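call fold(seq) -> tokens
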Amino acid sequence: MASDSSKVWSAFSLVSALGAAALAKKGLDKAWQLATGRQPPENPADPDVELREAVAWAIASGVAVGLARMLAQRRAASYYARSTGHLPPELRKDNQQG
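ret:
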């Protein structure tokens, strides 16, 4: 039973994190355009992209996607806990079962 619960949580967590990351990227692209008047760099590693712009994009995208994934996984864990009466197996303190 714990294995099934772990599989459900893994799938639920993955889907919520991927969805949040995609939404964050889309929002960040629009925010970048509004702030700079340009499209975000397609590949910040490209030497034709200014270093300052590449670093700014890397920081902004890393923070935005990381926060979105964390918030989505917290919401998913909360929903999981309300639905099952306990936290997902990977989030239980001391990895307690039951």
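The radius of gyration is 18 Å.
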